[in-house]
């Protein structure tokens, strides 16, 4: 019984859990800072999980602090992750922590910013040198090869700041009349650009073009520089080209910036790369994302397009939420259904087992009575436990002779009843009154006493005795079924056959 129930529970558990059998990958995302560019990327990563629903993303932002990022990477390692996606704040300081992850055998995707080692699985991001170079070319062309230029650099020691600077220098170095007045140090924030300009003691008058290494710093520069003398004609350009009011695209549309460069986030592609690595599919180690220049000519169109994409994104979010809810409901319903099926099956098993137990009990009781009455000699009937034990008699040989137990009042009564029944059973006319009379009892007295001792009525015992005798006769003599039926007091052989079958589960013809 136990085994059956255990198998059943196991089957139900397997069925209810089979939809969860797919492995869930834990992907940790370590962001160097929190800003609109990184928020966009995080949202795209989350949206990527609509396609890969076997992914669990965990995000951490270091707020521009190397120490914090190192700590967060160590925490990710403690918590356990299948893959790390990381944008290191500064190259030199954060790289060793990333190396540790890689050395542990955990795949690492470096995105947007680089490390100073080869210990990573893949890189994905735009070409920052090329972007700096293209911005240099753009500015030099706009200035027709002549003018005063100011650069505001991103966070010191971060790879895009170094590469954009190198690319920019590479481009303007071909223009001898372009003067790079200064490369001021910012940290990617608007405030840092404002602070850097205010702190500069050199001549910042008559700047023709400012190259902010990102849009936020370019806008910050414009806020301070525009207040200085002879700066009304200064033009500004940056990098990122983000959608949304107040960001790069809108700033170009509104002529706050002359140009920007879309620095792609492409979180969905980053997640796809992660899944290819985790699922053992082919992937490229170096993945370059395409960037593109934004000017007044295309800013409006690009803005409209990205607004449309944002709108569609919201629709997808909504649909995803709906389908998530629906799937959850379905899951719950399935669990409830299987639990109901399980309970019904368990109940059925319990009913069958109880029924079988009951049948067994009844059969055993009958067997006991019949054995007691007709198969076991009266002397072997058990003595009543209350009677005091007699000391065992020791034989001359020294062997202890078992004392035959004294028949009890009940067993003596039953023995007598057996004699009466056996003497009368061939008489088909015999009644309970006759049997009672033979025992000097009234019909009621006989009934009560027999019922109390055997839990069967005198008629039932008479019938059992007849059938047992019939069994003996059929098995040991040549008498046919009718002869035996009459011999044991049945008046109709067909009724005898039915009773015989009920009693022994076989037909009398099986024995004759
Ligand atoms: C966002 C950001 C961008 C910049 C990039 C460089 O955190 O500051 O503005 O283009 O990082 O990594």
TrEMBL record:
Belongs to the bacterial solute-binding protein 2 family. Residues 384-396 have a biased composition (Low complexity). The keyword ATP-binding does not apply. Gene3D superfamilies: 3.40.50.2300, Homeodomain-like. GO terms for molecular function: carbohydrate binding; DNA-binding transcription factor activity; sequence-specific DNA binding. Residues 384-407 are annotated as: Disordered. InterPro entries: Homeodomain-like_sf, HTH_AraC, Peripla_BP_I, SBP_2_dom, Tscrpt_reg_AraC-type_HTH. The lineage of its organism: Bacteria, Pseudomonadati, Bacteroidota, Bacteroidia, Bacteroidales. The chain crosses the membrane at residues 335-355. Residues 415-512 form the HTH araC/xylS-type domain. This is ABC-type sugar transport system, substrate-binding protein, contains N-terminal xre family HTH domain. It is found in: Cell envelope.
